[in-house]
Design goal:
21 strands; binds iron/sulfur cluster; globular; 6-stranded parallel β-sheet; alpha/beta; binds S-adenosylmethionine
């Protein structure tokens, strides 16, 4: 019998890439590959790359340099594939700069990996960055029970890909293409399978997830809210989330879903990018500061325990001190539970890259430090206010100490519990006793919060 071939997949960037990496591993499992965490023993290494900022893209070339050295030193014939958005945007450039690469595959062609690898094995260097007419999801096999178990009780399901918004700083519309929504039945089938395999929490993902408009089983177009209503009826689904949303697509039915669906977690990632109307207009965000703030008010009316996270860019071309002050002011007004913030990174081919009022690097660095200080204080205040609160956590993995398990709060905080009376894959009601910089600690509460949802489950079977 042959030894199974070993596959090492490294994901850079967003959750879409994490999901895609899993689906590539599922496709290659059929070809006899098993996953390893050690690139040195891999027969095939896939780098699933991110092109969103210059630094993210450059990481790929340094990783390829490391792999080349490792291959030379070991005299190995490991194959190297580059997938993801850098592959899509710079396929030919990768082949030119990195002779070690055998295959370049764009995000819409993952289902073709087995053929592409066969061609590479025959000595060809292959690039496939087409946007094929066929739907890759129809060809990507579902994960096995063992694969799902190894990934834990919280899973992603892609419902939508691509973006039609064309923010002037962003490469996504070019690397991921136009907005496409998956048909509802296919999403429900995938969810049912995951739930049957022990998954308890599903995060619906898409570059612009709340623009979802998939064909329903009734032939009509379903919104994200309608899809989630249907998912919330599925047995075994304890928690539902979705990311990433655009403020312009927060429809009334989606806001109402936060009021009506107990499984929908009271936590929303809603990128705003800037607090200045002038900059939001230059970014082509299609929303102003007031629309964002009024949305938050409506969301909090619908779900009073809602917490928010967001994305920010500092140093967008033309951003003045006054514009930046508006951003700080918005952060103070909203009180985010968490946030990501970035220096503007000029991306070739995007309109903002052509702007002649680029902000100096030192100014960007200063502004980022100031914004991050404020966001960290806002996060620390939110976490501190959790002390004494009681909520359900979903137990996901072992902790560092024997007997400890780590779960996720509704707000995605890590919560450490000693000797919990429940196992991985189960919900446990805890009261928060300690708040640290990276995690919280809790003890089991005497009365479960929502017995219907916290019932003992078909936990991730061993
Ligand atoms: N679709 C989402 C939205 O509407 O905001 C986000 C997609 S993007 C993968 C994630 C974040 O990366 C963005 O929200 C933005 O803050 C940041 N980003 C995108 N392009 C950037 C650039 N050129 N420079 C710095 N940050 C950028
Ligand atoms: Fe990029 Fe804007 Fe689309 Fe988000 S909405 S993916 S930031 S173009």
């Amino acid at each position: 019998m042959h030894e199974p071939r070993k596959l090492y997949v490294k994901s850079f960037g967003c959750q879409m890439n994490v999901y895609d990496s899993h689906r590539m591993a599922d496709t290659l499992a059929r070809e006899g590959f098993v996953e390893t965490q050690d690139p040195a023993e891999a027969d095939l290494v896939i780098l699933n790359t991110c092109h969103i900022r210059e630094k993210a893209a450059e990481k790929v070339y340094s990783e390829l340099g490391r792999l080349r050295k490792q291959k030379q030193e070991a005299g190995s014939d490991t194959m190297i594939a580059v997938a993801g958005c850098v592959a899509q945007a710079e396929g030919a450039e990768i082949m030119r700069r990195a002779a070690v690469v055998d295959v370049v595959v764009g995000p819409q062609s993952y289902h073709r990996l087995p053929e592409l690898l066969a061609e590479a094995k025959a000595g060809k260097r292959v690039v496939d960055t087409e946007f094929p007419a066929e739907d890759k999801f129809d060809h990507l096999p579902a994960p096995t029970r063992a694969a799902t178990r190894s990934r834990g009780p919280a899973a992603f399901v892609t419902v939508q890909e691509g973006c039609d918004k064309f923010c002037t700083f962003c490469v996504v519309p070019y690397t991921r293409g136009a907005e496409v929504s998956r048909p509802v039945t296919k999403i429900l089938d995938e969810a049912a399978r995951l739930l049957d395999q022990g998954v308890r929490e599903i995060t619906l993902i898409g570059q612009n997830v709340n623009a979802f408009h998939g064909e329903g089983p009734d032939g009509k177009v379903w919104s994200l809210a309608r899809l989630m209503e249907r998912l919330a009826e599925m047995k075994g689904l304890a928690r539902l989330r979705y990311t990433t949303s655009h403020p312009r697509d927060m429809g009334e039915d989606l806001i109402a879903a936060h009021r009506d669906l107990p499984q929908l977690m009271p936590y929303l990632h809603l990128p705003v990018q800037s607090g200045s109307d002038r900059i939001l207009a230059a970014m082509n965000r299609k929303h102003g500061r007031d629309l964002f703030l009024s949305l938050i008010e409506k969301m909090r009316d619908a779900r009073p325990d809602l917490a928010l996270s967001s994305d920010f860019i500092v140093g967008f071309p033309g951003e003045t001190d006054r514009d930046f002050e508006d951003t700080l002011d918005l952060v103070r007004e909203v009180g985010f539970a968490s946030a990501y913030s970035f220096k503007y990174s000029s991306r070739p081919g995007t309109p903002a890259a052509e702007h002649d009022a680029q902000v100096a690097e030192e100014v960007k660095t200063e502004r980022l430090a100031e914004l991050q200080k404020l966001l960290e204080a806002s996060k620390a205040a939110f976490d501190a206010a959790c002390r004494g609160r009681t909520f359900d956590i979903l137990l996901e993995k072992p902790g560092r100490q024997p007997g400890q398990l780590i779960g996720r709060s509704p707000y995605l905080q890590s919560v450490v519990v000693n000797d919990p009376p429940a196992g991985i894959g189960e919900l446990l009601t805890v009261t928060i006793t300690d708040v640290g910089p990276n995690s919280l600690a809790g003890v089991p509460a005497e009365t479960p919060l929502s017995p219907a949802l916290s019932r003992p489950l078909a936990a991730m079977e061993a």
